[in-house]
Write a structure and sequence with these properties.
- This protein has helices at 7-18, 72-81, 130-141, 197-207, 263-273, 323-333; strands spanning 2-5, 32-38, 42-48, 52-59, 61-64, 66-71, 87-92, 95-100, 103-110, 124-129, 155-161, 164-170, 174-181, 183-184, 190-196, 212-218, 225-230, 233-238, 257-262, 283-288, 291-296, 304-313, 317-321, 337-342, 349-354, 361-369.
- It starts with a strand and ends in a 7-residue tail after the last strand.
- Helices cover 18% and strands 44% of the residues.
- The protein is an alpha+beta fold and 376 residues long.
- Strand 8 (95-100) and strand 9 (103-110) form a beta hairpin.
- The model has no long low-confidence stretch (mean pLDDT 93).
- The radius of gyration is 25 Å and the shape is elongated.
């Protein structure tokens, strides 16, 4: 094997392909990235940990086709450190030589024959705008659980029906729902998949800016899998197995009280007031006609309070929230104003965004947050 490639192209491709390599691999061979130089002038890079696979293809001047397996993280570190010149890579026996300018590295290879067979990319079911997909994933991922003892809740439930995708996530304390349009290959396409929030976040971060993102899905056919492809890069992941709880019913049907506040002003005030809130202590929001008062701390402890302008429809109400969960929801909205809809001080509060103080709220993104009970 022998080929020449531009340094930035190589560094970018190796870094992306090696990003999901396991820290504690079940087999040493899984620390490797497979390089496959093809006679058509491309080099394909592969990684796989039995759950998530990645494939990147880059243009190169291929002098001699071939395949090698080499430490992915080491190759990525070397590629990033090379001078900005063309990189020559060739195989000598059981080693590969990486040469760039005056720099030269020799790396041991691993047995390609021992590398597992990579999964096949599921058939493309449709495409979605990468930027909108990334925004949607960012919004719902905040509510996914990070507790690995509850694997179901570390996933995002993705429901596809026709030209609409709905994403749902919950960690039992908050619930996020986001809807977005997409272009299915088949107008009647319908599917439900539970995808790891970590996988979706990685796809949104690394592929979302590549324009149109292709999505493939194999569900209910033995090895259930999702695949994403954009910009010459492809990644697949096994779906989370299990029945996701019926969380849609938690959104209230009637909301007799609602308040509207400037989103950024509420974020900044929450951050200031929360400075005196000790770990696991709430921040209280008291809504009255024309204003909302935020306060934290009590008794001999440090205390803070701040008042903001707010529109209130319905009777006065006071609720208390985990400050970080409150900030997560407000930050995810991405709108100038936030509408908080209430049924009772101890019942979950629905957050939706709107463009003006007295405008209509958008239901494309909904964030439901369980309040903390407080004395009095």
């Amino acid at each position: 094997m022998k080929f020449r490639v531009e340094r930035d192209v190589l560094a970018d491709a190796v870094t992306w392909t090696a990003r999901t390599l396991p820290q504690r691999p079940p087999a040493p061979v899984l620390t490797g990235v497979k390089l496959e130089a093809n006679a058509d002038g491309t080099v394909a890079l592969f990684s796989f940990d039995y759950e998530v696979s990645a494939r990147s293809e880059i243009p190169a001047e291929v002098i001699e086709p071939g395949t090698v397996l080499v430490s992915g993280k080491l190759l990525a570190e070397i590629a990033r450190s090379l001078p900005s010149k063309p990189v020559d890579i060739h195989l000598e026996g059981t080693k590969i030589i990486v040469a760039c300018g005056a720099a030269r590295f020799t790396l041991l290879t691993m047995q390609v024959e021992d590398y597992p067979t990579l999964p096949v990319m599921p058939e493309i079911a449709g495409t979605v705008d990468g930027d909108e997909f990334s925004q949607a994933v960012t919004q719902v991922a905040v509510a996914a659980s990070r507790d690995d003892t509850l694997p179901l809740l570390t996933g995002v439930r993705v429901e596809i029906e026709g030209d609409n995708i709905t994403m749902l996530s919950t960690d039992r304390y908050r619930l996020a729902l986001r809807e977005l349009p997409w272009s299915p290959a088949n107008a009647d396409f319908s599917a439900i998949a539970l995808i790891k929030a970590k996988t979706l976040s990685d796809v949104a971060k690394t592929l979302g800016s590549a324009g149109q993102l292709s999505l493939g899905l194999t569900a209910g056919a033995g090895l259930d899998m999702v695949g994403f492809e954009a910009g010459g890069r492809r990644t697949t992941s096994q779906l989370v197995d299990g029945d996701y709880p019926a969380v849609r019913r938690l959104f209230p049907e009637t909301k007799p009280i609602h308040a509207v506040v400037g989103t950024q002003a509420l974020i900044e005030a929450t951050r200031r007031v929360a400075l005196v809130a000790e770990r696991n202590t709430p921040i209280r929001l008291s809504f009255t006609e024309g204003s909302v008062s935020l306060d934290a701390g009590a008794g001999d402890d440090a205390q803070a309070s701040e008042a903001l302008e707010a529109l209130l429809v319905g009777e006065d109400i006071t609720v208390a929230f985990n400050p970080q969960f409150l900030l997560d929801g407000l930050t995810a909205l991405g709108t100038d104003f936030v509408r908080l809809s209430f049924t009772h001080p101890n019942k979950p509060v629905e957050f939706t965004g709107q463009g003006s103080l007295e405008g209509e709220d958008s239901l494309h993104f909904r964030y439901l947050l369980v309040p903390i009970r407080f004395a009095g």
